[in-house]
Amino acid sequence: MRNTRSDGPVVQVEDVTKSYSGGAGVRALDRVSVAFAPGTFNAVMGPSGSGKSTLLQCAAGLDKPDSGRVTVAGEDFTRLSEPRLTRARRRAVGFVFQSYNLLDSLSVWENILLPQRLAGTRPDRAWAREVVGRVGLSGREQDRPAQLSGGQRQRVALARALAARPAVIFADEPTGALDLSTGREVLALLREAVDAFGATIVMVTHDPAAAAWADRVVFLADGRIVTELADPTAEKVAAQMMAVSVR
Ligand SMILES: Nc1ncnc2c1ncn2[C@@H]1O[C@H](COP(=O)(O)OP(=O)(O)OP(=O)(O)O)[C@@H](O)[C@H]1O
Asked: Membrane-spanning residues where (predicted)?
């Protein structure tokens, strides 16, 4: 995995505020600062509407904050024009979504190489093959996503993210559509990506058991980071969620 140029964080969110107009006007993020270090697995939790998705969108360069700064792999995403931001995001960021977001018209292998093609980089096929093996998809390369189970599709999405060697992978409820044991397999692969490949992962989840796979859990409430846990267990995360939810 590619890390940042220095030992500093891969992702730095500084004093980010984001509001949505309409209705009463919602402040989804209220002066949020958080950093994600290279080679770490981070979970973001919080009650519904606390700002988790907005934080992920802003940190990943999918949305622009109203104020504050987002730096990813040494690049200030908040100062880039839209086309440059798109290019920078394609170079530096990988995504895993709850709904897989695979293209059914492409094979598994083509899906996995697609982000590199879009980024205009020459796909590293040897690395992609290794990743495909690691996630247990060897032999399925020519299948279409529609021929695969949910768990297998999420493995494709993870392989797609890893194959491009992004500085950071953002995962939005990656196990949300999976049954318990399939979800655990995907979480184990995310964990392995960090431990074996040095990937940096930021995962939004509602599930304390999922968050317990992370090195660190950041808790949001009402658009603010209210606390965090290092070396979480499912019990500690659940207790903290209770405390955050009754605030
Ligand atoms: N596109 C939008 N337009 C208007 N309001 C929005 C929009 N997106 C989010 N919001 C509001 O911003 C706040 C934060 O939403 P966000 O989706 O970031 O929270 P969340 O913690 O991810 O919630 P959930 O767990 O339900 O997915 C909420 O009050 C939400 O209603």
From this structure: none
Ligand 1 atom showing the smallest separation from residue 51 Cα: 18
pLDDT in tens, 218-232: 999 999 999 999 999
Q: What mean pLDDT is predicted for residues 169-188?
A: 93
* 53 CA distance to ligand 1 middle (Å): 7
CA of 245 to the centre of ligand 1 (A): 16
Cα(241)–Cα(243) distance, rounded to whole angstroms?
5
Architecture of the structural domain at 11-245? 3-Layer(aba) Sandwich (3.40)
* Domain residue spans of the chain: 11-245
Q: Ligand 1: which residue has its CA nearest to atom 13?
A: 28
ipTM: 0.97
Of 185, 172, 202, nearest to 101 (Cα)? 172
pLDDT of res. 246: 82
